[in-house]
Design a protein that fits this description.
This protein is α+β, with helices and mostly antiparallel strands. It folds into two domains: 4-80, Glutaredoxin; 88-148, no CATH class. It contains six helices and four strands, in the order E-H-E-H-E-E-H-H-H-H. It has a four-stranded mixed sheet with strand order 2-1-3-4, with helices on one face. The longest helix has 31 residues, at 88-118. The protein binds glutathione. Glutathione is lined by residues 12, 14, 41, 54-56, 68-70, 102, 106. Glutathione binds next to helix 3 and helix 4.
Length: 162
């Protein structure tokens, strides 16, 4: 029987993905709280000991360490014969949404949610600087901004003023 340890912090949606999958597969795991806000994942020691990518979550399975939720979810699906798709089309669909999630939803929306919800001062000025320094602003505008009234950074007036 596999024994799992999940390095997580409670605000982490990525951690929730693995906690949910393990639970739906009927597996128990030991939660390992990580002081993300305190900056531990940015230390060289943590990166050397836990995840060189500097990211949460990390799933330990019988002492082996796995990172990146998409391949971990696929691995668990195969291991426990659940949620893996019944045929080629369903497997394609699963990959399609996992790629979309990693590229668009988690990268952009989760970063925005984290900053807006959990930083001490949800100051959208810093969000604008972040977005303008990356590809985020155009991607936001194209796929979500007009619907959710998220701020964007390049030229157009922001739909949110704070
Ligand atoms: N693609 C990664 C994303 C993981 C991720 O972005 N985790 C956040 C916390 S929920 C993090 O550790 N961010 C720190 C960073 O990107 O440096 C996955 O699916 O596991």
């Amino acid at each position: 029987m596999a024994s799992y340890r999940l390095h997580y912090f409670p605000e982490s949606g990525n951690s929730y993905k693995l906690a949910l999958m393990l639970t739906l597969c009927g597996r128990r795991f030991e939660p390992v709280w990580t002081d993300f806000a305190g900056g531990v994942t940015r230390t060289a020691e943590w990166r050397q000991a836990v995840n060189e990518m500097g990211e949460i979550p990390v799933l330990e399975e019988n002492g082996m360490s796995w990172t990146q939720t998409a391949p971990i979810l696929l691995k668990l699906a195969e291991q426990y014969g659940k949620f893996g798709g019944e045929n080629a089309q369903e497997k394609f669909e699963i990959l399609r949404w996992l790629f979309w999630d990693n590229h668009k939803l988690t990268s952009y929306m989760a970063t925005y949610r984290f900053q807006r919800t959990f930083t001490p001062s949800p100051d959208l000025t810093s969000w604008r600087s972040f977005a303008s320094a990356s590809m985020i602003s155009s991607a936001f505008w194209n796929c979500t901004c007009s619907e959710t009234r998220l701020p964007q950074a390049s030229g157009r007036p922001s739909p949110i003023s704070r």
